[in-house]
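seq:
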Amino acid sequence: ISICRDLPNIEVITFSVNGISDLEPLHQCQNLSELYLRKNNITSLDELFYLKALPRLRVLWLAENPCCGPDPHRYRMTVLRNLPSLQKLDNQAVTEEELSQALVDGEEITAPPARRSVENGWSESSASSAAGATTEPRSELLSCSLEETNKTQEELDMKPVPRDKYSSFSFQETDCSRKKRNNVLNAILLLIKELDAEGLEVIQQTVARRLQAFQKKELQEE
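struct:
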């Protein structure tokens, strides 16, 4: 998620099922309108502090994080009190009645979360999220990454990835390498929308050269 510090113009981010615990890198993404963070390791709603300064944020998916807690009403009211511009939270439309009720039932967040350091320089929450990231079932990783990659491709008028083709190479890799590749693919697809014609031509030429190199390597192996 630290890459977001260098992407101030990004509009849509899909980081579900990634062991993320810190939202600080997002606070400069002023054009961000949609943020998908389902099934991460966000332990405190204080992380919303970093999203309060994002004027265009309209869609947030934060469900299935530890910060949601045992009381779904309190969780939703707190999110809406701090992010009243949201139009959809956890795939559910936000109503005017909820926004009014959030002023009563929600808790206002006025400061960033405290970070507890450990000996090696990581925060405790980061260490626990790194450990938890490897326990996610393969089927869940595949389903989530495929769903969100296809959503991004639909926005770019590209054909969705067939599930059988996607899984044929996914299960030959470790969870870590597969997640890394899926994240890189999502990032590339999102960044393509930021390019002009000249930039797209450079990408096209680079991809063509890479494909030729792979095809040549396959022929040599055969």
